[in-house]
Design a protein that fits this description.
The protein is of the alpha/beta class. It contains 13 helices and 13 strands.
Length: about 375
């Protein structure tokens, strides 16, 4: 097996120079660096990662704590994190906190004990113990998808990377109102998550823009998972005046809502329109095809890696929150025809609403539109 000394002899440099090339501990002239890399390749030299970490105090590894198994959305984020880590020469250690605050704290400590250089974490609805641990041990961390408020003590807090939530949700609501719906239900996520509160805010903003009153009876919580969303949707359908349109606040809850609609013998969109927050691989395969908000999942993961590497390079810089834009993907589950602006059912709803003096004109949408985040408005 080739050694550093073998590489040094082949490249015509000192062992110290080979070490500097491997560990980045000192600048090396480009032609010297290339000679070392060529020698390593020719000799089949494999660096000793453990020995290198003792020299640099870095393991070139990142800890990732997300509920990837239970949430398909996080699976795509994981792919983005992995690609970003590999691009910059980092390995990935993954743990699933199962959205449980106690388990979350344990798995993050285990990752920390593995001497990861930094962490990327999607916090639970009750992240107090998690944040206290990370802060106490000064672990370079990027919070993913779900944001937390800045600490009351005025400290910098954590870097955060997420997608816009409020304006895209408002976009779904105004679209349903534009095609004639006056009673629009929401299956919201787990209380305590920032994504839940922001999407609820967007729902209310969308109603306000459409000139519709907020009715708390039309809002139920599906706790961000399928079974709870199925029960919550069934509760909405049991109302004396059930919604004519439904918005689900994540992909898992969309599945639960569809099960409830099927069990009640309702057809989408003829009996009830449906829009969802989170596009997913098979949304385009349903009949009807699902109108959705598409989050840039892989970009969120890759961007989180870049923000973490910036933090490792500048430990004392101010914390920042990065929000990436979503896209409105217009299909047919909202009641619109494939190419035209509205369906026959939407026309009937608008005609009925006009007789009550509450209708808004229909506004056709393009199949896929990027969204900008402006509170209280949609673009």
């Amino acid at each position: 097996m080739a050694t550093m000394a073998d590489v040094a002899r082949s490249a015509g440099v000192s062992v110290a120079t080979v070490s500097h090339v491997l560990n980045g501990t000192r600048p090396v002239l480009p032609h010297t660096r290339q000679a070392v890399l060529d020698a390593m390749d020719e000799l089949g030299y494999t660096p000793n990662t453990l020995a290198r970490s003792l020299v640099t105090s870095r393991t070139r590894s990142i800890g990732l704590a997300v509920s990837a198994i239970s949430n398909p959305y996080f699976t795509e984020i994981l792919q983005g994190v992995e690609a970003g880590a590999l691009e910059h020469g980092y390995s990935l250690l993954i743990a699933d906190p199962h959205d449980d605050p106690v388990h979350e704290r344990k798995v993050v400590q285990l990752l920390h004990e593995r001497r990861v250089d930094g962490m990327i974490v999607a916090p639970s609805a009750e992240p107090h113990e998690l944040l206290a641990y990370l802060g106490r041990h000064k672990v370079p961390t990027v919070l993913l998808d779900r944001v937390v408020d800045a600490p009351a003590d005025g400290s910098t807090g954590f870097d955060q990377v997420c997608a816009d939530s409020a304006a895209p949700m408002a976009r779904l609501v105004t679209h349903l109102a534009d095609v004639g719906h006056r009673r629009i239900g929401l299956v919201a996520g787990l209380p305590g998550l920032s994504t839940t509160s922001e999407r609820l805010t967007g729902y209310r903003d969308g109603l306000a823009v459409a000139g519709l009153a907020y009715d708390e009876r039309l809002v139920v919580h599906g706790d961000s998972e399928s079974a709870a969303a199925e029960r919550a949707t069934a509760a909405l359908l049991s109302l004396a005046a059930p919604p004519t349109a439904l918005v689900t606040a994540n992909n898992a809850m969309t599945i639960g809502a569809l099960r409830a609609l099927r069990d009640h013998g309702l057809s989408v969109p003829d009996d009830i329109a449906l829009c969802c927050f989170d596009d997913f691989a098979w949304a385009d395969l349903f009949s009807p095809r699902l109108t959705a908000i598409a989050q840039p999942s892989r970009d969120i993961g890759a961007h989180a890696v870049r923000v973490l590497l910036d933090r490792l390079a500048s430990p004392d810089g101010p914390a920042r929150t990065v929000r990436l834009p979503c896209a409105f993907v217009h299909r047919t589950s909202c009641g619109c025809a494939e190419e035209s602006g509205r369906s026959r059912r939407s026309a009937r709803l608008e005609k009925s609403a006009r007789s009550e003096g509450t209708a808004k004109p229909s506004t056709p949408d393009s199949p896929e539109q990027p969204l900008t985040s402006v509170k209280g408005t949609v673009s």
